[in-house]
Amino acid sequence: MSLSLPTRTSAAGQGAGAPGGRNSTLGLAFVLLAQLMLVLDATIVNVALPDIATLGFGPASLSWVLNAYTLAFGGLLLLGGRLGDVLGRRRIFLLGVAIFTFFSLLGGLAADPTMLVLSRAAQGAGAALAAPSVLALITTNARSDQARNKALAAFTAVSSSGGALGMILGGILTEAISWRWTMFVNVPVGLAILALVPRLVEETPRRHGRFDIVGAITATGGAVALVNTLVKAPDWGWGDPRTFGGLILAGLLVAALAATEKRHPHPLLRPQLLSNRRRVTTLITSVALFGSMLGMFFVTVQFLEDHLELSPLQAGLGFLPWPLSIFVLSRFTPRLVARFGHARMILAGALLALASFTHMATLSHDAGYWVIMPSLFLGGMAVGLALMPMTGLVLQGVEPEHAGSASGLLQTTQQLGGAVGFAIVTSVYASHHAAGFVDAARAGYTAAAILVGIGVLSALTLVLRRPAPAVETA
Fold it and tell me: Cys-Cys crosslink for 347: which of 77, 279, 410, 459, Cβ 3.0 to 4.6 Å?
């Protein structure tokens, strides 16, 4: 089943309001600012949850302030990437930012839990429309390979540090003003992006073809079923029939997606994107790294707020070593990749992450903040080293007209990896909590280390396997 869409064969820059080459660097900076805003919102409410609970949330329903955003964001990313390829990436990017900004305002004004959770879900939907186009706009608007590599380094620095920055900003806003400003802060930023990006960033050409409705339904349904099951599994239990049922439903929808995409002339997810072993291996490593990272964030928030009894502001600032190390390292990553290659850099980052989380797993009963601070520095360095070459390998050899789909695939695996890691680590943490916080934290950090260990093994195959002369075009 498919739906014909209007098409246009204009070159980039022929759309309405195309700015040509003017201020392209400033335009890409605002696109990256949008990416930071979208990533921040996945964690900005974490340290504000105790304050948000006063809105009338129960202990079980409070988690949906986080889960609603994750569910919509992760579930709709592939669809957002394909819409950008077909209808124009700048157009879909701006639509996503507009939706995100409007529902950020509504979320900040929420008078009851239902209004806030629905606003968070709508924010996630807007983020899913905008996020795949961010990477595609960077790769198509960069004026040279050097500019492209610098933009990719900035993108990965923003994406990999945004989670920690979200907790820092959330702590500052919650303690200084109100939890509502974790929502309101997006409004002026979103309005600035909506006003300036059309003047500074060129539109991309639309693709000829028909829209893959069956692919959109199965991809979105499969991703939503998987993320929903994973975020609820720690509460339901991994042996609960609902957990099994959700995973089976997700598997059936993914199988239906695979069958559909092989036959459709213009598929939502191009099978060729998964035909390259280096790309698939890189995606597996990315899943392991993101999953372990978000799981580690969860345990560390418990350590800072519950065990050390820090305030939201203090707990947020406790994550400062993570983004600082990423931003410092991002200045050197393009040169390191040029010298040592993508695969070696990915392996180095995975090994540093393994060292970081393994050290955290040795947490003692009298440990203070200064015990885990070096691990946060090391973990930030790990992500700073690995994420930019991961992004480069996934996009390498992808034709420009399919950059949105490739970006959607990359970010979908990262979101799903984060959901998987979060579910596994929180489940392990909860199962050991009766023995005391320190034992539970050790178990959670150990689970995170095991997850990133899978990423190390995957990255090792990238280094040991003889590279192909060129990555297949997808």
Answer: 459
